[in-house]
Amino acid sequence: xxxxxxxxxxxxxxxxxxxxxxxxLERILSATECTVYGIDIQSSKIGHLLSNDRLTFVNxxxxxxxxxxxxxxxxxxxxxxxxxxxxxxxxxxxxxxxxINFNRPYELLRMCAEEEKWLxxxxxxxxxxxxxxxxxQCNLAKxxxxxxxxxxxSTPLILGPVHAQRWSYACAKQLLERxxxxxxxxxxxxxxxxxxxxxxxxxxxxxxGIDGEGVPRVLACFMEALLFHKPLWLxxxxxxxxxxxxxxxxxxxxxxxxxxxxxxxxxxFNIGNPANEISIARLARRMVGIYKVLRPxxxxxxxTIKAVSSHEFYGKGYEDSDRRVPxxxxxxxxxxxxxxxxxxxxxxxxxxxxxxxxxxxxxxxEAG
Length: 368
Ligand code: UGA
Fold this sequence. Notes:
Rossmann fold, seven-stranded parallel β-sheet, 15 strands, binds uridine-5'-diphosphate-glucuronic acid
């Protein structure tokens, strides 16, 4: 596909059944006339979309490159959401993390280069690792934006030592970005790399023991605690900060990218809401407050917030990004996108969706 867009391109979405994929698919089907090949082994989050005439859902392992090839061939744009992006896995199964986040998608990008498809690849905000201020500890002014605001084209990517296996994921993702860039440079691959900054919203992650196992990301960890009256754990005191970006804003950004191939191809974009920065400790307190408002019957309940070391919570080899504030000026200039949803609205909508989805499970556990 050239940098000019066909009016209704055919889009192949690898990983259409996950959190981001389900929202993106929903929007593409409702807001465009595009035809979609949606590939995933799970469809529980997209059940409401499966009867759409313009969707061909393919129940296929996204890593089965040979079988995926014919859908890539039949598409103009390939959106790859394939990732193992849960920090609890980075230091516990690092080989699989590197395999799934580097080796498997490498095959896909080779195919996109050969077939001259536009690859929209999901990377991660985690490639930035630590901020300059966090890395240098007291030697740099922590509050000077140059030392913590993350820019796609100028900020260095600062990861910890090899034995700190937390960085296995960020390193695999970073290397893949470098290979994509090199394919663009040497072989003319048309690509756009996106770096998501903690998207939240309905259908995100899972609740352990209900519809998944292990330790999900922080939003789902805190929701499990709220729904099932367990402590909210603050890893290393919850001092690190994130920006939480509402999924509808994130999908707006992706649609703006698809609408603007000329200015989006050959670019890496941060997608995040810099206005929504919050420490994890404050997030816990904020979520307790919102949860009590949404479930007035629990207003007098005490929810326990406790500190835990990262070693105890995640095991050996865990390190953390201290802050992740995106510079979003490039995506604004290239596509006109900007986020609109403030942190309280994003949390309220997300918490409400968890309450609705897991209400019955919560009642059963309360009764039992
Ligand atoms: C993860 C992935 O590694 C990124 O690739 C991805 O881009 C990002 O999620 C995302 O959602 O966009 P991270 O932000 O570290 O990155 O993921 P979380 O597991 O949500 O952790 C956020 C912070 O909360 C960390 O400091 C973590 O230590 C802390 N945390 C987590 C707690 O304090 N308590 C918990 O119960 C869980």
